[in-house]
Amino acid sequence: MNKQQLIFSLKQKGFSKNILNAFSKVPRENFIPFQIRNYAYEDTALPIGNGQTISQPYTIAEMLGMLELKKGQKVLEIGSGCGYVLALLSEIVGEKGKVYGIEIIKELIENSKQNLQTYKNIEIYNKNGAEGLKEESPYDRIIISAAIKEIPKQLTRQLKNKGILVAPVENQESQTLTSFQKLNDKLEIKKQLPGFVFVKFID
C-alpha cells in the first residue's frame, strides 16, 4: 500500500477532512527505522525499537476523531514514542495550537526530536507520563498512546473542564479505546470502541 491508497482507505472509513489532510502532510516513513520504510503506508503497527511500536494508521485516525480537535487547541500526548502522532496533532491544531509530548524512553525522545525539527509548535519531555505536565496545563485535549488500567488523577486535574481525554483502557480480556469528557471535575465516558492492542503503559 502507498500513501494515496492508505488515505483513500481512511477516507472510505469516514474520517474527517482535517484528519485526512494531516495524514497526507506527515511523511510516516520519517518516523520508522530505515530498514522497514517499505512498509510505511501499510495499515499496520510497526516496531520502532525499545519494544515499542508506531500504531496502525486506522487506530491513530480513530483516536484523533474521538479527540474532536479544533484549531488553536493545546494538546498533551502521553507516550509520544517516535513523534508521529505529535506531528499529526500539530497539523490539525495549526500554528496557533500547541502540542506537548511526554515519553519515558530516552532513546525514543532523541529520535522524535530529530523527526520533529521542522515543527515549531511541538515540545517533548522525557518523564513519567502518569505525572502529566502540570507546568503547561490545563489542556483542551489529552491522548494516552499506551494501554492503561485507569486514568491517573494528575491527568484528570490537568484537563480543562469539558476537555476530552482519549486512551486505550485495559481490562482482563482486551483493550477498549475510550473517550472521556471532564464534567464537574470527573471523567465521564463519551464513547467506547473495543478490540484494540497497544503496548503497555510504562509507569
List the helices and strands and how they pair.
Blueprint: H1 3-12, H2 17-25, E1 46-49, E2 52-54, H3 57-67, E3 74-78, H4 84-93, E4 98-102, H5 106-115, E5 122-125, E6 139-144, H6 153-158, E7 159-170, E8 175-183, E9 186-196
Parallel strand pairs: 3-4, 3-6, 4-5, 6-7
Antiparallel strand pairs: 1-2, 7-8, 8-9
Helix pairs in contact: 1-2, 2-4
Which key terms come to mind for this protein?
single chain, 6 helices, 203 residues, alpha/beta, 7-stranded mixed β-sheet
Structure description:
- With 203 residues, the chain is an alpha/beta fold.
- The chain is 28% helix and 29% strand.
- It contains six helices and nine strands.
- It has helices at 3-12, 17-25, 57-67, 84-93, 106-115, 153-158; strands at residues 46-49, 52-54, 74-78, 98-102, 122-125, 139-144, 159-170, 175-183, 186-196.
- A hairpin with a 2-residue loop joins strand 1 and strand 2 (52-54).
- Helix 2 packs across helix 4.
- The longest helix is centred in the first third of the chain and has 11 residues, at 57-67.
- The model has no long low-confidence stretch (mean pLDDT 94).
**Overall pLDDT confidence:** 94
Distance between the termini: 35 Å
Q: Which of globular, elongated, flat, extended, rod-shaped describes the shape?
A: globular
Which class best fits the helix and strand makeup? alpha/beta
Q: pLDDT under 50 segments (min length 5)?
A: none
Q: Give me the number of helical elements.
A: 6
Tally of DSSP β-strands: 9
Q: How would a crystallographer describe the biggest sheet?
A: 7 strands, mixed
Oligomeric state of this protein: single chain
What fraction strand? Answer: 25-35%
Radius of gyration: 16 Å
Written as H for each helix and E for each strand, in order along the chain, the element string is HHEEHEHEHEEHEEE
Helix residue percentage: 25-40%
